[in-house]
Each structure stands twice: as structure tokens, then as C-alpha cells.
Specification:
- A five-stranded mixed beta sheet has the order 1-13-17-21-22, with helices on one face. It has a five-stranded parallel beta sheet with strand order 11-7-5-2-12, with helices on both faces.
- The protein contains twelve helices and 22 strands.
- Among the domains are: 100-206, Adenylosuccinate Synthetase, subunit A, domain 2; 266-435, Adenylosuccinate Synthetase, Chain A, domain 3, CATH 3.90.170.
- It has helices spanning 11-19, 71-82, 104-118, 137-146, 159-179, 189-203, 210-219, 253-258, 291-299, 318-328, 368-371, 399-412; strands spanning 2-3, 24-27, 36-40, 43-47, 60-63, 68-69, 93-96, 100-101, 121-122, 125-126, 207-208, 224-227, 269-273, 276-278, 312-314, 316-317, 332-336, 346-354, 360-361, 375-382, 416-420, 428-430.
- It binds guanosine-5'-diphosphate, 6-O-phosphoryl inosine monophosphate (IMO) and magnesium ion.
- Magnesium ion binds at residues 7-8, 35-36, 305.
- 6-O-phosphoryl inosine monophosphate binds next to helix 4.
């Protein structure tokens, strides 16, 4: 399952629901920039690095090689989940020995670069920061691609080895941080090696060759659920570059991020909100900065799970979703947060853009500079007044809500297999919307 917009589509809830039918749940990309919320009865969980399947007993969760792991955050997340009575052991949490480590200097670099860029100016104007989560994601993936200064989970527990690597790394990183204006004492390789090798030892029983483990699970007929983090429009290759994250968060990231060859997924559930949100900078053609966006934000409680930032809100952009569904090979759609749209007299859907030269296109533009000039062409449809969060079946929904879902299916050419009308497991309507 994969997000088809700019993140926060409700992936945590869907993974929690789908986990019941799977044996193994795998994260293949991203890091602690993700924030997946699962609500079970009175309990609310926010997961960042752990696959959301960890909350259901008896499942095996895997952090694949494509993930960047902040061991300090992971250990604190494990502790937090354990303290709520959920078992995490070497058998139900496997971490790839090839996953790259997010170090403190990655987070400092991320924050410092954002600070410098926020006051920088180029021909597109002032303020060039991406609005990252400051979790060190970009610098950690940059090290992976750059190779020589990268550290992988498999080498963390060896203190002597780590110290000798960090002596070189810290000398270079200190100079880079200094150049970015960070006023701090030089990085201390001894302190870092001691702390991080201890994290390595604490996680040692979980760290393994997950590529062979996943192939074994598959050969033994175990069913595997891939939990996409971030979302397709934030994909480093196919999103709204440069306002994206640093991994392949579309389903195209699954083979590289797990070691299972393509095509490894029989079914791809594309998750979308019934409207659109985005956190951080970057073009957002259907954004509404007036009262409509404000109303969506308040009704949908659209504040970041990871950073608490208010999310930018607007009507549904189906040009974007149709593109993401194509890139990800979606076979069905889960339409989330439909309840948030109750009470609007009318709703708007965008299924094509007008470009500055007057031409109309129904193709997405995965390039920030050009997408800025795309103007949405609206289709207005009737809204509904009733609250729908207590609906049990699709037949309980007002006809206008059913018509809205139908129109989405028609434009996307995909069936909506799941409709969500609230954060809880029970607030889910399955089945085909209009027969
Ligand atoms: P994710 O990153 O895709 O897992 O999504 P987030 O957890 O960051 O944000 C989705 C938010 O919407 C969370 O607070 C969920 O509890 C909540 N949520 C999920 N589905 C629904 C829904 O159908 N209706 C409402 N009102 N909230 C929902
Ligand atoms: P989930 O899995 C929403 C956004 C950030 C920023 C850009 C780059 O919860 O849907 P990064 O820290 O990755 O370098 O930031 O990507 N971003 C997300 N936005 N939900 C997410 O994850 C996100 N992960 C990254 O806000 O604009
Ligand atoms: Mg989120």
C-alpha cells in the first residue's frame, strides 16, 4: 500500500486494517520523517520507523535495506510501544544490516541547510528551503549515494571499527557544519562511537540479512504487505522535484528497498484523502489558503504527525492522483477522511490543468517550477450536510457522497475498495460504492 498524494493520506490506518490478512509487514523506504497514526479503541499510536503492523500480535515486521534508520529514535519508539504492553523481540522485528544509519550530524546538516536556504534568493524568488522534517533524511541518503562516509546498521555494534570510521567522518563533517554556520564544538568521534555502538548492541538481535529472510518468507508462502512511507508525489525521481523527500516512496522503491525482484506485488492499494494536503514547501495547484482550506484543516485535524506543523489544504487534485496511481500500478483505491467533507454546499474536483499558453492537459507535471504555473480546471459537484462518521455501510452514505466516490472512480478508472469515515478501525466502509 502506498500514498498517492503528498503524504499523510491515512496509510497507518490502512496498514493496520490490512495487517490482519498478512504475515509479514515491510517498510521499504524513508525513515523517521514518516508519521503513521493508528487508532485502536481509546489508544492512539504514532509510528515513525516501526512498521504499523507491529501493533497486531503475531506478525513479523521488517525494516528493509531501503530505509534510513535513526537508531536513537528507533530505540525510543520500541521502548514507547513496549511500555504500552506490545511485545517486540528478535522474532517479530527484523532490521536490514544494509539499512543506512542516520547520525546526529545528518540531522544538524538538514536543519542548518534549511536555515541557510530559507533566506537564500535565486531567480524563483526568496526562501528556497524544502520544509523538511529535519530528521536528517536527505543528508543520510546523500551519504549512501556518496558511499565513502556512510554507515550501515550491520557495522554499528563494532565499537573499534565505528570509532576508526568516525574519526575520518567527524573531521570532514565538522568542517562542513562550520561552513553552514553551525556554531558548535567539533564532533567527537569517541563519544559518538561509544553511544552508537551501544545502540548497535541493543539492536543487534534484530539486525540481519532481511533480503534472504524476505525471500524465505515468500518461498514459504507467507503473505507480505509493503508499507509505503511518505508518498508518490514526494518520490525523489517521480515527485514534485526538488520539493520531495530523498527516497523512492512510490511502489517503484519496493524492489530496491527490499531485495525482492519486481513485480513482487500482486495488488497495490493506492491511498488517497478525499481532498488534498501537503506539509512543507512546493507547488500545490489546488491549495486553498482561504476559509475552505482552513475549514478542511480544522475538521480533518490536519497537523503533522511528526512535526506538528499545520498542513496546507485544498480540494481534490485527481490529475495528481491519477498520475501517482499510474506510477505505482495501483489496482484499487482506499479513499480516506471522507467524513471531513460533510457540511460543504458544494465540492470541487480538479481533473485537468490549464497551462500559461492556454492549453489544457490532464497530465501531471512532476517538476516544481513548471507545476507552479498549472491552474486547476474545476468540476463542481453537490456536497452533503450530514455527518457520516457513524455510517456502517456504504448504503448509509448520502447520495451526494456516493456520487462523489463514483466520480472519483470514473476519473481514476479504478475501484474504491475501502472508504474511511473516521480514524478508528470500525469507521471503515468496505465494498463497491455504487454497485
Ligand atoms: P499517514 O502518514 O498516511 O499514516 O497519515 P497520518 O497518520 O500522518 O495522518 C492521517 C490522520 O488522519 C491521522 O490522524 C489518522 O488518525 C486520521 N484518519 C485516518 N483516517 C481517517 C478518516 O477516515 N477520517 C478522519 N477524520 N481521520 C482519519
Ligand atoms: P508520511 O509517511 C508528509 C515532506 C516534508 C518535506 C519533504 C522533505 O507520514 O506520509 P524530508 O524530511 O523527508 O527531507 O522532507 O517531504 N514529507 C512528508 N510529508 N508526510 C510524510 O510522511 C512526509 N515525509 C516527508 O514535509 O516537505
Ligand atoms: Mg503521516
Amino acid at each position: 500500500m502506498v500514498g498517492l498524494q503528498w503524504g499523510d493520506e491515512g496509510k497507518g490506518k490502512v496498514v493496520d486494517l490490512l495487517t490482519a490478512d498478512h504475515d509479514v509487514i515491510v517498510r521499504y523506504n524513508g525513515g523517521a520523517n514518516a508519521g503513521h497514526t493508528v487508532v485502536i479503541g481509546e489508544e492512539k499510536y504514532a509510528l515513525h520507523l516501526l512498521p504499523s503492523g507491529i501493533l497486531s500480535g503475531g506478525k513479523i515486521c521488517v525494516i528493509g535495506n531501503g530505509v534510513v534508520v535513526d537508531p536513537e529514535m528507533l530505540l525510543s519508539e520500541i521502548e514507547g510501544i513496549r511500555s504500552r504492553g506490545i511485545e517486540i523481540n528478535a522474532g517479530n522485528l527484523l532490521i536490514s544490516d544494509r539499512a543506512h544509519v542516520v547520525m546526529p550530524y545528518h540531522k544538524e546538516h538538514d536543519a542548518a541547510l534549511e536555515r541557510v536556504l530559507s533566506s537564500a534568493i535565486d531567480d524563483s524568488g526568496p526562501g528556497l528551503s524544502i520544509g523538511t522534517t529535519k530528521r536528517g533524511i536527505g543528508p543520510a541518503y546523500a551519504d549512501k549515494v556518496h558511499r565513502s562516509l556512510a554507515i550501515r546498521m550491520g557495522e554499528l555494534a563494532d565499537a573499534d571499527h565505528l570509532r576508526s570510521r568516525l574519526e575520518v567522518i567527524c573531521a570532514i563533517r565538522t568542517r562542513e557544519l562550520d561552513a553552514l554556520g553551525v556554531e558548535a564544538p567539533p564532533l567527537d568521534p569517541h563519544e559518538l562511537a561509544e553511544r552508537y555502538s551501544e545502540y548497535g548492541r541493543l539492536l543487534e538481535n534484530h539486525i540481519t540479512d532481511t533480503v534472504y529472510a524476505l525471500h524465505d518468507f515468500r518461498n514459504n508462502g507467507r503473505s507480505i504487505l509493503f508499507e509505503g512511507a511518505n508518498a508518490c508525489l514526494l518520490d525523489i525521481d517521480h515527485g514534485t522535484f526538488p520539493y520531495v523527500t530523498s527516497s523512492n516512496c512510490s511502489t517503484l522503491g519496493i524492489p530496491a528497498g527490499t531485495g525482492l525482484p519486481a513485480p513482487c506485488a500482486d495488488e497495490v492499494v493506492g491511498i488517497m484523502k478525499a481532498y488534498t494536503t501537503r506539509v512543507g514547501a512546493g507547488p500545490f495547484p489546488t491549495e486553498d489558503t482561504g476559509p475552505i482550506g482552513e475549514r478542511i484543516r480544522e475538521r480533518g485535524n490536519e497537523y503533522g504527525t511528526t512535526t506538528g506543523r499545520p498542513r496546507r489544504c485544498g480540494w481534490l487534485d485527481l490529475v495528481a492522483v491519477r498520475y501517482s496511481a499510474m506510477i505505482c500500478g495501483a489496482t484499487s483505491i482506499a479513499c480516506m477522511l471522507l467524513d471531513v467533507l460533510s457540511g460543504f454546499d458544494e465540492l470541487k474536483i480538479c481533473s485537468s490543468y490549464r497551462l500559461p499558453d492556454g492549453t489544457v492537459t490532464d497530465r501531471f507535471i512532476p517538476d516544481a517550477r513548471r507545476l507552479l504555473n498549472a491552474e486547476p480546471i474545476w468540476e463542481t459537484v453537490p456536497g452533503w450536510a450530514e455527518e457520516i462518521d457513524t455510517s456502517q455501510n456504504r448504503s448509509d452514505l448520502p447520495p451526494e457522497a456516493l456520487a462523489y466516490l463514483d466520480r472519483i472512480q470514473e476519473i481514476l478508472g479504478l475501484p474504491i475498495h475501502l472508504v474511511s469515515v473516521g480514524p478508528e478501525r470500525t469507521q471503515t466502509l468496505a465494498g463497491s460504492p455504487c454497485g
